[in-house]
Design brief:
single chain, alpha+beta, SH3 type barrels, about 25% strand
């Protein structure tokens, strides 16, 4: 089993996917002047995006939204790779289950009793078990990478969005003096959300 090409391919894919998951959740921010900033988006306001670089000692920095051209959020490649790996795992499992069912159908007949069946070639059964096992492991690795990518992407885009959640009230007092010397006043109230 350890010399099977599919098993070796599975190990290679698992290592590659593990290395992909080790990537930091940093976004690539391209500014209007063409320069780029590689940092994690940790918050935002109506006019700025707050970022922190991978360096643990660095402090967060605000970048004005007007200075930003594009943002490449982390996790998008991971979602694609995880989805393709998941599909590949399912693609291995389906033929494995079909071969297993075909083998079971072939064993039903005159040569079978309640407890035993005479079996001919075991190669088809072994192939089906290998396909099911490797396909399941590959699909599980794909699910892990897909979920990690979704989490990184949604966290980054969520931190970059600015939503004014609470209502704020702003009162502006005013007063006027009439020509006869009497005064009138009041206030205008505006609601911002």
């Amino acid at each position: 089993m350890f010399h099977d090409r599919r098993f070796i391919a599975f190990i290679a894919c698992s290592l590659a996917l593990s290395l992909m998951m080790a990537c930091a959740p940093t976004a690539t921010i391209t500014k209007m002047d063409g320069s780029t900033v590689e940092a994690e988006i940790i918050g935002s306001s109506s006019g700025t995006i707050e970022v922190k670089s991978e360096d643990e000692e660095s402090e967060s920095v605000d970048i004005k939204r007007s200075e930003i051209s594009t943002i490449n959020h982390p996790g998008d490649i991971h979602m694609i790779a995880g989805g393709v790996t998941l599909a590949g795992g399912i693609g291995m499992m389906v033929p494995g289950f079909l071969l297993f069912a075909e083998e079971a159908d072939q064993n039903v007949g005159d040569n079978c009793t309640i407890n035993t069946c005479e079996r001919g070639d075991n190669a088809q059964e072994t192939t089906s078990i290998v396909l099911i096992t490797v396909g399941t492991a590959t699909a599980m690795a794909g699910i892990g990478v897909l979920l990690w990518g979704m989490n990184a992407y949604l966290t980054s885009t969520g931190n970059a969005e600015f939503e004014e959640g609470d209502l704020s009230f702003q009162a502006t007092p005013w007063a006027s003096v009439d020509p006869d010397g009497s005064t009138t006043g009041g206030a205008s109230l505006s609601i911002v959300w």
